[in-house]
Amino acid sequence: MxxxxxxxxxxxxxxxxxxALRVDVSDVQAGWGKRGGRGQIGVCGADEDATTLAWxxxxxxxxxxxMGPDAVxxxxxGCTRPPFAEGPSWTHLAAALRLDSGCDGALLSGSTHAGIxxxxxxxxxxxxxxxxxxxxxxxxxxxxxxxxxxxxSCGAGAAAVVVRREGPATLTAAASSWxxxxxxYRGDGEQVTREAYDPRLFxxxxxxxxxxxxxxxxxxxxxxxxxxxxxxxxxxLGGALARRLHVGEVxxxxxxxxxxxxxxxxxxxxxxxxxxxxxxxxxxxxxxxxATAIGIEVNEPVPGAERVAADVVExxxxxxxxxxxxxxxxxxxxxxxxxxxxxxxxMFVRGNTEVLGLLGARCRTCDTVNTPPSIHPSCIAxxxxxxxxxxxxxxxxxxxxxxxxxxxAPFVAPLPLVVVDLDDGSRLMTQAVGDGADLxxxxxxxxxxxxxxxxxxxxxxxxxxxxxxxxxxxxxxxERPADITKVSLGGGGSW
Length: 495
Known about the structure:
The protein is an alpha+beta fold. 23% of the residues lie in helices and 29% in strands.
């Protein structure tokens, strides 16, 4: 195979995101009457998916680098299975990150090799001068076939890096090779990903030889001198590859143990925390019959790398049954309530930008911020009609809340609704993450992107409030209103 090609770009910041749930592999095995099983996998909560994880990882990377969305002129996203099989996956993520409408970039998908494809595409764009600052995000939340071997290894997660010409970690070279081989795949019209037909054949004739070939092309005859992030699709192949290569240290092991196989995100997640230490670093990605190895020289600790480990372990243990419900593979029977407005209607076409970007309308006459803008043709304070769109802060405090204990399908009770006083003085009503048990008046909350529902095959996104810490102010003389549904919402409306 050809030798490695040089790269001319650098990583300036990194961020990571993990799903809400953790499921013990032994619990999955027990659900099918089997014994054994070690470790755990990460599973998205019912309101999470590859888009919400990608948003959180990219937001953390930009925050770590001290950059705002105005600094970004390119977005490359690698995702095996984006939420829209065909549709506006990339533009939804770009809008949620508040990127400029002229932003460059692409969505790479179709296999777990998509993450490294996004990184290399962004590096080339930066090296050519077409883009100055690129955000590269890789995320996945695959749906495994029930009862399959893939089900005990299939995880979820996301990682993002900011790429520029110069930075603390230099991308040095990459080597790739491929074979037209059917491994894991999902056919047209199918919902779940199938595992390899013959795992032993795949291991001995495809995975190990191909990965060994590209690793050798990148590093020469001494891969043991490198710290490596390695793919591990089933919990055993990564170890076999490490032994084959005689690598010195597998830095991706802790993330694999926490989240399982994160697909297209595995490479960047595995490398992310290791970029906190100076020295040479290598990574290898595999998917769809393609393997690519990449070299990195960490000259200084990369901002954000120090918190990757902590962000990855955010999650709560859930049962196998709860995971099936969260993935939508176990559904209640009966009638479900559809939205009155189709997702492709004028309301969504006109309102998607403000909802995904979390925008308000500031009255130029009196400075009052109206939320949401599309339902306020006149200012709620002065009646004026001259507005400018402004980004709303993603933090505030709870003004009041209610927890609905009965909800029609597809919504699940308890469902908390919360009124948030944002840091700029504006106010909005939205859902809260969880069952509402941690909500209290005055509690500090952040607004995070979540999937509210799937309507007619279309994921509907918005922002939910998540409690950061309880109220620090003791309101001994303040009474909650007897009927919180009567509290003014500053003109009404919900995200």
